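Incident log, support desk, overnight shift.

02:14 A customer reports that sequence design results differ from what the structure should imply. Their input is reproduced verbatim below. On-call engineer (initials T.W.) acknowledged and began investigating.
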């Protein structure tokens, strides 16, 4: 009797287990079907939002996307920050994107009409943005301590680019200057700031892909010694101030203004480049390194050890570059050290004291007994060509002020009388509009040559060595 009951119980338990397995498999199929349906939606969303990266389609800038879709696109892009370690979620999205690219229909079923509208036939091996093999290196432009710069060509759209290849050390990781430059440039869109097209992150290198610009101001001035055409100086300075005003309004300091970092296109457009030392200054009390700015363009407050500075830091560099473009030689070409550099500045502007520069005695490196006492001079005494151009000396004097707070801002400098003969429409341009879209605005021939910007190539940073600077 007991044996019969045990047999019935065992049979009943077996049936229950079988039923549970059947139910489990049914629920599993339902869940799988739901997941596949959700996956289809992800594929469609990714392909419509990102134009399906595996296809040969034009990637539109955010400015051309309707307002109601911008937030979704920006959020998608921010998930692929090359400086962040991928989370499981990001890895999964990458996997889903790969599935979208390699699967003809993004799932087993009919191709979505939405996908068809946003894609075009293409091979899975077609070049794509964000891939190292999407760019062909044409020639080396220069090499610095942590990066090599190449002239290159995009296989996606055939355009020339500048490839800044940063070598990554396994022990040290990504250089902070590269992270800083890329993170800042991603958010800067202006006609007078070099455009960052793409970022490629591999285990060995980080490559920043910039628009290709023909030459830089240093090479341009070397090609035309003795000072540039006065009208060209005015247009180049206007563009420099325009770009600086844009970043200063966003609380960003460049901190490394010099002719090598000002690129000039073959049409005469000037573009700020090399933001490796740039900083976003959000809190006024922050202190910064005083080891910034190439010596010739470094302001006296920084030379004296000040670490509390703002946009006035860049404005001193503007004054130095302005004088150099007009005069044809560097304003303060120090040949030895910081002491020599300060002596050259004080020789023209006068040795500071508490009356002319409140707080100068509190600066770490200011020792009055170490400096010769000089009286200030008119700038035309040091640089005679300033007197040849109306209002040039006055503008230069307001930029080259030893006391930082007395220096003119970029926005105020754009309104200086020196620019009063330029067309009013220049002040009405949108950020991404070139000044050369305004009728009759163009560079003049230098030294009797036809209008063309000369020079070998640009460095987009510290790549190309130059004996002059």
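02:41 Re-run completed on a clean worker. Output:
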């Amino acid at each position: 009797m007991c044996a019969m009951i045990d047999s019935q119980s065992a049979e009943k338990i077996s049936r229950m287990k079988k039923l549970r397995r059947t139910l489990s498999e049914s629920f599993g199929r339902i869940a799988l079907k739901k997941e596949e349906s959700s996956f289809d939606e992800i594929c469609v969303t990714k392909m419509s939002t990102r134009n399906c990266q595996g296809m040969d389609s034009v990637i539109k800038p955010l400015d051309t996307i309707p307002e109601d879709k911008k937030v979704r696109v920006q959020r998608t892009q921010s998930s692929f920050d090359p400086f962040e370690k991928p989370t499981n979620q990001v890895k999964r999205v990458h996997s889903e994107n790969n599935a979208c690219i390699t699967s003809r229909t993004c799932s087993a079923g009919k191709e979505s009409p939405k996908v068809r509208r946003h894609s075009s036939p293409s091979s899975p091996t077609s070049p794509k943005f964000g891939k190292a093999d999407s760019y062909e290196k044409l020639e080396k432009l220069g090499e610095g301590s942590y990066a090599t710069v190449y002239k290159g060509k995009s296989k996606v759209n055939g355009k020339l680019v500048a490839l800044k290849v940063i070598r990554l050390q396994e022990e040290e990781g990504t250089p902070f200057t590269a992270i800083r430059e890329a993170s800042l440039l991603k958010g800067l869109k202006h006609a007078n700031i070099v455009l960052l097209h793409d970022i490629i992150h591999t285990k060995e290198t980080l490559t920043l892909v910039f628009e290709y610009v023909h030459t830089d101001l240093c090479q341009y001035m070397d090609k035309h010694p003795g000072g540039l055409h006065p009208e060209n100086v005015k247009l180049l300075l206007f563009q420099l101030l325009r770009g600086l005003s844009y970043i200063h309004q966003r609380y960003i300091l460049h901190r490394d203004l010099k002719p090598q970092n000002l690129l000039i296109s073959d049409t005469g457009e000037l573009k700020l480049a090399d933001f490796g030392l740039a900083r976003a200054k959000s809190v006024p009390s922050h202190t910064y390194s005083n080891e910034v700015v190439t010596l010739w363009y470094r302001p006296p407050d920084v030379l004296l050890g000040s670490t509390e500075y703002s946009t006035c830091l860049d404005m001193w560099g503007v004054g130095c570059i302005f004088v150099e473009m007009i005069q044809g030689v560097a304003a303060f070409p120090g040949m030895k050290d910081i002491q020599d550099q300060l002596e050259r500045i004080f020789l023209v502007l006068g040795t500071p004291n508490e009356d002319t520069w409140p707080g100068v005695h509190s600066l770490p490196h200011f020792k009055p007994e170490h400096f010769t006492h000089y009286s200030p001079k008119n700038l035309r005494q040091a640089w005679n060509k300033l007197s040849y151009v109306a209002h040039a000396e006055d503008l230069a004097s307001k930029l080259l002020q030893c006391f930082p707070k007395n220096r003119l801002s970029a926005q105020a400098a754009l309104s200086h009388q020196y620019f009063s003969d330029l067309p009013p429409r220049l002040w009405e341009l949108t950020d991404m509009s070139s000044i050369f879209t305004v009728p009759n605005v163009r560079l003049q021939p230098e030294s009797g040559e036809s209008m063309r910007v000369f020079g070998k190539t640009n460095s987009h940073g510290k790549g190309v060595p130059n004996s002059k600077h």
